[in-house]
Amino acid sequence: MVRAGSRARRPLLALAVAVGIALAAAPTLAHHSRAMFDMGRNITYRGIVEEYRWQNPHSHIVVRVEAGAADPSTVGTWTIEASAISVMTSSGWTPRTYKPGDPITVVAHPNRNGSNPVLLFYAIKADGTRLYRATHQYDGEKDY
Length: 144
Fold this sequence. Notes:
alpha+beta; single chain
């Protein structure tokens, strides 16, 4: 036997569950936006790896560019946002691709507000090997 009051509450419970799921998913969806990066610009950062974080949801490379760089606007320490481990693995990256002290050249999309996090387009190892963030490319990513 089903009570009339419990039947009336089912739609309300279903709505509450749906709203909860939507709210929980919102940060995940917002996290994957590229809106903070200028996808139409590529800046080259030549420096030294300070830290290489092989992690999900995004790997990161912290790069220090010393004074005297060809492009003075790149001097400083930059956090280069890359892709998830699975995406980077399929593009040839490994947990040992870089270690602190390694020279690196990074081509990245700058943050629109000029701040430290930038989005990796590709990296060039000391031996000249190019490693891309992903196999797909966004509009404005031109290989040169």
